[in-house]
Write a structure and sequence with these properties.
This protein is mainly alpha-helical and 474 residues long. It folds into six domains: 55 residues, no CATH class; 77 residues; 82 residues; 85 residues, Leucine-rich Repeat Variant (Alpha Horseshoe), CATH 1.25.10; 65 residues, no CATH class; 70 residues, no CATH class. Helices cover 72% and strands 0% of the residues. The protein has 27 helices and no strands. α8 runs parallel beside α10 and α10 runs antiparallel to α11.
Length: 474
């Protein structure tokens, strides 16, 4: 007969899909009595639901235990943010039903309500309630939450000027991980940082230095807290974590590099450049540093990225990232075109083609056309060069040049596709180019494809041209 008392009645059995025919009143609607059978007509089902709703209200008052009812009222008051009423009801529950299964958790919920109500008297009483719960109900399900709540209550009291609470917050923040739950210590660190950052930063440094004792999770939290009060001192701490004296946990190192990238501080940028220049950082740290430098816009960042992009011993994926970020920087095209000639890795070459193709200037288009016409390049590279040349402003005449020099049928097909895209954009010159190819092409299948794309054009000259092909059979 506890919180599930209704579930033990015939109503609960009906709701659970069980059969308790002997418990169902004979006057209940058919939809309620035929539990195993399919539901009847819609009107009967609605009638059954209405009848059930009325019976639930009637039965709830008859069979609910008083402690169940009181606990439910208290939780509802807490949910409605009626904290004073919730605290009163949980206190009544503790006093009236000292042996109830709810009593141990009632200490926590009353403390929570008083904490949220927020007066100094309520904070003091909330702290006492949690102490009583720890002594009397150490196995309560809410004990873990209670420890974190206690730290928050202490922090709130400290912010109000409570000297004892202030001392306790400082003590909690400085304790070793073995002496306090991580959640409590994290809450204490956060509270101390908000109260007194000058005192908090040295403690955070102690936390980050305790690499053999404190857990990695707490150090990660400490990095985030430290980054909220960024100064030249905290930049030094992050540099130490990321590079000079690397933290053993990769996530801590990555977090340190990330926050360095968010700082408009020459020391942070220099640290990122040092991480890359040294070449001994872990790959994931180098990736973070590349991203940070690429987004920084710092004038010296380009030199570091160019060095990374050129480095023949640099892992290919890191070189690709360096090329990508260089492609976002203005004035990097001459370097990219020069770099391409020294590359042998296909994926890295494609990265450069992509970066150059995004520029949209005629010089880049002409350079890409040369790559597309180069027989020493693979067909895939030539196709990609032709595609990106199209994005950079390739003219139909340039496409025809590629088409004429292409010995590979696949590349010629791709050139036709590029022209077809330009036809869709109402390029008259592209129609001229396709008609020229259609006249000269000897491959029947490819010629049919050219004619198909011409047929998609709205150029008034196309019907006459097609008629000419029909008459001439060319």
């Amino acid at each position: 007969m506890r919180g599930n008392v209704i579930g033990m009645t015939w109503v609960g059995l009906v709701l659970a899909g069980g059969v308790a025919a002997q418990a169902i009143p004979p006057n209940a609607p058919t939809a309620m009595r035929s539990v195993d059978a399919p539901l009847g007509a819609e009107r009967e089902e609605l009638a059954g639901l209405a009848w059930l709703d009325a019976r639930l209200q009637e039965i709830e008052g008859l069979v609910q235990d008083p402690e169940d009812d009181l606990y439910r009222q208290a939780r509802r008051a807490l949910a409605r943010e009626e904290y004073r009423e919730a605290a009163r009801l949980f206190m009544e529950l503790r006093q009236r039903f000292s042996r109830s299964p709810y009593t141990g958790d009632a200490y926590y919920f009353e403390a929570l309500a008083r904490y949220r109500e927020g007066s100094s008297a309520n904070l003091a009483r909330a702290r006492d309630l949690l102490a009583e719960q720890a002594e009397l109900f150490a196995e309560a399900a809410t004990r873990e939450d209670a420890r974190t709540l206690e730290a928050r209550i202490t922090a709130a009291a400290a912010r109000r000027g409570d000297a004892e609470a202030t001392a306790r917050v400082r003590a909690q923040a400085a304790q070793s991980c073995e002496d306090e739950e991580q959640g409590v210590r994290s809450a204490a660190l956060s509270a101390l940082l908000n109260m007194d950052s000058e005192r908090a930063v040295p403690i955070l440094r102690e936390v980050l230095a305790e690499r053999g004792v404190c857990s990695a999770e707490l150090r990660r939290q400490a990095v985030v807290l430290l980054a909220q009060h960024m100064t030249s001192e905290t930049v030094d701490v992050l540099v130490d974590l990321a590079h000079e004296n690397p933290d053993p946990d990769p996530a801590v190192r990555e977090a340190a590099v990330f926050w360095l990238s968010q700082v408009d501080d020459p020391a942070a940028i220099e640290a990122l450049m040092d991480i890359l220049s040294a070449g001994d950082a872990a790959p994931e740290i180098q990736e973070r540093a590349l991203l940070a430098l690429g987004q920084s816009g710092h004038p010296e960042a380009r030199a570091v990225l160019e060095s990374f992009a050129r480095g023949p011993d640099t892992p290919a994926h890191l070189r690709e990232q360096a090329v990508f970020w260089l492609g976002q920087m203005e004035g990097s095209l001459p370097f990219m075109r020069d770099l391409y000639g020294s590359l042998s890795d296909r994926e890295l070459k494609e990265r450069v083609l992509f970066a150059i193709g995004r520029s949209g200037d005629p010089e880049s288009s002409a350079w890409l056309v040369e790559r597309a016409m180069d027989p020493s390049e693979s067909v895939e590279i030539r196709r990609n060069a032709l595609f990106w040349a199209g994005q950079a402003g390739l003219t139909p005449a340039q496409v025809v040049r590629v088409y004429r020099t292409a010995e590979d049928r696949e590349l010629r097909e791709h050139a036709v596709m590029v022209l077809a895209q330009q036809v869709e954009e109402a390029e008259t010159a592209a129609v001229d180019a396709l008609m020229e190819i259609a006249r000269a092409e000897t491959d029947p299948e490819l010629k049919e494809r050219v004619i198909f794309w011409l047929g998609q054009s709205e150029d008034p000259r196309v019907p006459e041209f097609l008629l000419e092909l029909v008459r001439g059979g060319g």
